[in-house]
Design goal:
It is a single chain. The protein is an all-beta fold. Helices cover about 0% and strands about 45% of the residues. Strand 2 and strand 3 form a beta hairpin.
């Protein structure tokens, strides 16, 4: 079970985008995520008339390592670690370590 999933609000905790908040757009692989508004790069793109794309310099998000982000806790307004807890009925849920609230509603 992943501690950070698609759609989670996260905070970048290290690197050039430290402190930026965003939503996880996509989980690339086991160790990399695509975060909205973080790790943006300029890409020089050639025009492709067959696909209908114009050329120029575009901004795009690049994957960021999962160790460089932390889940954002809305009650404390800070980055928080996530723990996985098994409930009595056998379900596994994600909870914040600081206050014990569940991420999964």
């Amino acid at each position: 079970m992943r501690k950070i999933r698609k759609g989670d609000n996260v905070v970048v905790i290290t690197g050039k985008d430290k402190g930026k908040r965003g939503t996880v757009l996509r989980v690339v692989d086991d160790h990399h995520l695509l975060v909205e508004g973080a790790n943006r790069v300029k890409k020089h793109q050639k025009p492709n008339p067959m696909k209908g794309t114009t050329g120029g310099i575009i901004d795009k998000e690049m994957p960021i390592h999962v160790s460089n982000v932390a889940a954002f806790n809305p009650t404390t307004q800070k980055a928080d670690r996530v723990r996985i807890k098994q409930m009595d009925d056998g379900r596994r849920v994600r909870i914040y370590k600081s206050n014990g609230e569940m991420l999964d509603a």
